[in-house]
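Here is one chain, start to finish.
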Amino acid sequence: MYVSIEDLAEYLGVSSLYIKEQIQKGNIRAVFDGNSYLINKAQFSKHKEQIDLKKKQLAEELAEPIPEDWDAKDED
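Its structure:
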């Protein structure tokens, strides 16, 4: 399925300017239809899964309570 730059930017959670820069650098493959760029959304499915997994891990890490400090001064 082909999507526009704006749709892909929303899907990945980045700016459309970033997507345009990556197309110009050749990092993202896109098709120019004479009016706008179209990008195959399937090439980003694995990338999106990894981003979602990292966000989930970060949320779990931030939700974890901070352990109380033990006092090392009491030891001789």
